[in-house]
Amino acid sequence: MRAVCWYGSNDVRTETVPEPKILNPRDAIVKVTSSTICGSDLHIYDGYIPTMQKGDIIGHEFMGEVVDIGSEVKLLKMGDRVVVSSIIGCGQCHYCQRQKWSLCDNTNPNGWIQDKLFGFGTAGIFGYSHAFGGYAGAFAEYIRVPFADFGAAQVPDELPDEKVLPISDAFPTGFMGAEMCNIQRGDTVAVWGCGPVGLFAMSSAYMLGAERVIGIDRFPERLQMARDFAQAETINYEEVDAGEALREMTGGRGADACIDAVGLEAHGIGLEGIYDQAKQTVRLETDRPHVLRQMILACRKGGILSIMGVYGGFVDKIPIGAFMNKALTFRMGQMHGQKYIPRLLGYVLEGKIDPSRVFTHRLSLEEAKQGFEIFKNKKDNCIKVLLKP
């Protein structure tokens, strides 16, 4: 089969590789009908995610058709059309039983790698390095889905792939980011990053009761999408200081909750941006925390900071004094896909949201390298790239 394989920073290749097989009776084999490049995939593409190995198949946001099942798969059958959570959960451990799927105890055979960085191992993730299990990813014609009864959700035939695909990862990530804000009626929610996750976080904040949502970015096409898709107010942080603008827009109080939908490659400006870029380049700092610093200062006293942008290691110059003395609450984590997918699928079926609007580019699997370059460099007003095998 054809699949997109990683070979180093900015080096991905579509190659012929062996097809996956059932390895465990709880496995299913899914024929991928659509996948999409996630902002988290760019961290891999740019070489910032450790424990990648040459030839690894990448990609984690996908859907398709069940073409084979193990003997212990009970809820799926051959021919089922499914959307699959990017997070792999066993469904039985302490964390899965409490809907904390991304913390699963049993799906990451390489949890020992994370022990050194995180203290404990977390769940496996498709196509996201050996620290997260070393699972083959979704930029392929076929994929093995472990614990398939708990990760693959059946999809009605009347919904086209484009409306369902973001429910695999980007939509639940944004929704979880908004849910962690504990939104109350009348709240103002600020979202850093108007990419797909940020857009879904903005829409979700409104669905959860926010009165105002403010999107922060620097690309005009993304700010326009935030206004059109999410009905958000917007701030271009290259034109004004985002923190000062938020203070003015909220009558001097600050946002009630702030969501980081950017992560470890945050773009800073001025000396701070140069500082983080330089330290990350020589690996004295693994992640660029520009957004984290800005959120801590911009959030109102007693507010909530929700972090859905991916971070992988260590950051520098975090204003912990402001965080403590303002009595802020930090909430964060990889998304618990299995918890949210049924609810979000219901929203799409009810017509409350059309996730397909975030797709601006549709390419074949053979054009994956081109898709990465378009997405990374924000060419041709790109918001999100859909890949078809």
UniProtKB/TrEMBL annotation:
GO molecular function term, any single one: oxidoreductase activity
Cofactor(s) needed: Zn(2+)
Domain called Alcohol dehydrogenase-like N-terminal: residue spans: 25-149
Source organism superkingdom: Bacteria
Domain Alcohol dehydrogenase-like C-terminal: 196-265
Record's keyword annotation contains Metal-binding: yes
Residues annotated as transmembrane: none
Keywords: Metal-binding, Oxidoreductase, Zinc
Keyword Ribosomal protein: no
Stored InterPro entries: ADH-like_C, ADH-like_N, ADH_Zn_CS, GroES-like_sf, NAD(P)-bd_dom_sf
CDD domains assigned to the protein according to its UniProt record, in alphabetical order: FDH_like_1
Family listed: Belongs to the zinc-containing alcohol dehydrogenase family.
Name this polypeptide is given: Glutathione-dependent formaldehyde dehydrogenase
UniProt source species: Aetokthonos hydrillicola Thurmond2011
